[in-house]
Amino acid sequence: MKAEIGVIGLGVMGKSLSRNLARNGFNIAIYNRHVDGIEENVARNCQRDYAELENAQPFDDLKDFVQSMSSPRKIILMVNAGPAVDAVLNDLGNLLESGDVIIDGGNSHFEDTNRRIDSMKIKGLDFIGSGISGGEEGALKGPSIMPSGEKEAYSKVKKYLESISAKDADGNPCCTYIGSNGSGHFVKMIHNGIEYADMQLLAECYSILKGQNLSNDEIADVFESWCSDLGSYLLGITVDILREKEGDEYVLDQILDKAGNKGTGSWATIAIANSGEPATMIPAALFARYLSFFKELRESAAKAFSTQHNTNEIEIRQVKEAYQFSRIVNHHQGFSIIKQVSNQNDWNINLSEIARIWTAGCIIKSDFMKELVHYLKANDSILLNDSLNQTIRKTHSSIQSLITACIKNEIHIPCFFAALDFFHGIKTFNSSANLIQAQRDYFGAHTYQRRDDPTGKAHHTEWTNI
Virtual CA dihedral for 15, 18, 23, 25, nearest 10 degrees? Predict the structure, then answer.
């Protein structure tokens, strides 16, 4: 029997997606490259190890894998982003036929996806760039899926992607057609950026509470108490992490404080800068990870500039409300960058629908995300929602007090700073940018607009050099 869909790449995510497809009753083919002494019989071993894959067809020869599928062939690539994707596409281009569909399910850069859609189209092949979030567990049990490309191409694979995706509270698939070109991978990139910032906020809360001499279990108790009204996947796993022990030792205390990243945070930061959107929290979270990697320098600086700290003036209530305030700003910035770039590229992305597919299956799923589904139907700007306005007003003084105390005690809290500073900036009616524009005109004759000239005409002054 011919397979109806195939998966290339049987790493953690590819293996889990294959099992998910098989669980949903699809006849699948699975392929992994053969490398002598390194990757041998991967597909066969994968089939043997998992009962769901009993009827899957395993291959380590790409031509045989392609020929095992019915037309139009539908292939999901789960290989590392970058040159590896292009290498596989080059090989597939010589084996596939017009009308076949390739889905890139990795974390590819959206501009690479744009290029690949065009290059595959020349060969008569349909290419879909699809963000997939949820990690290993999500890939197996139901991830959030963000596909984009030609809508007609998506129609060929819709039933497969929607079947294996997570389901929202109403039972609808957490998979939706995002838009044209690489919009799916762009949305996934910003998803990861929001994730970076929320993780950093929780790390800053942990750092503050640790400074109050709370044990890991006591901090876990605090975080667990927040779950009733601030529940999220990231908050929940943070509670689990804080409680985990090896014997009498906390696992967390044995982990070196150097945070890694796989590139999506830096891509998101570059995209933010290119778009002109003032989304400050994602870059702050990224640079906090970069700073963490300078462990030896940090240790030396800590010894050279050691000070006494006193965090008794910090209240746990303030930490919670500062986190609540900052989460609103983080999501506002994330959805704003999606809206901005969507407008610039005519993608017509529905923000409420993005929030909906992020309510289950993905890393940033939360109770707040479920609220945003409804808020974003009424207004694309999260900050201007009446209900959230009330929350911001209620928590504003807490984040101000918290940041003041952290400054006094030299606690590193870049994302809290970024959230509050953005808020103060966005609600400044008359900013100091008029001085900057005057400076630009002074040394570079860049011109400026005048308040008393509603036409928007460019003006220039021959500044007096004293």
Answer: -170
SS3 assignment, position 39: strand
> Residue 435: exposed, middle, or buried by beta-carbon count in 10 A (0-12, 13-18, 19+)?
exposed
Token pair, residue 213, equals 């001499």
Q: What is the CA radius of gyration of the chain?
A: 25
Mean pLDDT of the chain: 94
What's the CA gap between 392 and 400, in Å, rounded?
Answer: 12
Given strand 5-8, what is the order of strands in its sheet? 57-59, 28-31, 5-8, 74-77, 101-104, 126-133, 144-148
Kindly state the greatest CA–CA separation across the chain. 87
Of all residues in the chain, what percent carry a pLDDT higher than 90? 90
> Is 4 considered catalytic here?
no
pTM for this prediction: 0.94
What pLDDT is stored for residue 39 in this prediction? 85
Give 155's pLDDT tier (boundaries 50, 70, 90): very high
The pLDDT value recorded for residue 38 is 84
Per the CB < 8 A criterion, the answer to whether 146 and 188 are in contact is yes
Q: Residue 37: is its pLDDT beyond 90?
A: no
Could you tell me which residues come within 8 angstroms of residue 289 by beta carbon, excluding any fewer than 6 positions away? 196, 200, 259, 260, 261, 265
pLDDT at 261: 80
Bridge partner list, 250:
245
Beta carbons within 8 Å of 48's beta carbon, 6+ residues apart: none
For residue 29, give the nearest of 1, 58, 53 by alpha carbon. Answer: 58
Tell me how far apart the alpha carbons of residues 2 and 67 are, in angstroms, rounded to a whole number: 9
Cβ atoms of residues 419 and 395 within 8 Å: no
Let me know if 195 is a catalytic residue: yes
Q: What's the pLDDT at 216?
A: 97
Q: Is the confidence at residue 66, as pLDDT, over 90?
A: yes
Q: Which of 15, 74, 156, 188 is catalytic?
A: 188
Q: Quick one: which H or E segment has residue 84? A: helix 83-93
- CA pair distance 369, 241, nearest whole angstrom: 23
Distance of CA 111 to the CA centre of its chain: 16
* The pLDDT of residue 338: 97
d(C-alpha 61, C-alpha 33), whole Å: 7
Mean pLDDT of 237-248: 96
**Out of 156, 195, 321, 365, which one is annotated catalytic?**
195
pLDDT at residue 466, rounded to an integer: 66
